[in-house]
Amino acid sequence: QVQLVESGGGSVQAGGSLRLSCATSGRAFSIYAMGWFRQAPGKEREFVAAVSWSAGGTYYADSVKGRFTISRDNAKITVYLQMNSLKPEDTAVYYCAADTRRQYGYYTEARRYDSWGQGTQVTVSS
Known about the structure:
Elements: E1 2-7, E2 10-13, E3 18-26, E4 33-39, E5 46-52, E6 58-60, E7 68-73, E8 78-83, E9 92-99, E10 115-116, E11 120-125
Parallel strand pairs: 2-11
Antiparallel strand pairs: 1-3, 3-8, 4-5, 4-9, 5-6, 7-8, 9-10, 9-11
């Protein structure tokens, strides 16, 4: 069982930047992919970005392409989300997710991931 802990959320003005981190802990687990999802008030959880752990391929939602960058540290088993040019519509709780069972589904789908963090709030003011 892997535990995920997000950090780095906060409040920022439009146009600003934040860097989210997701650290892993636990015993004897494998990572096949990690991703970031977000949920705004009154809306469903949506995909933001993902990275395949072995190949390092990255995937982004259209709404964040060119502004957000996902990266990983293999040694620390940590994933990051660099968010630039933030917009008020990026305001949401951001969740880190991990695929430790090589589950069925695309990297952009929540069903691919079996472990989730508690979330970190990102608020962007205009």
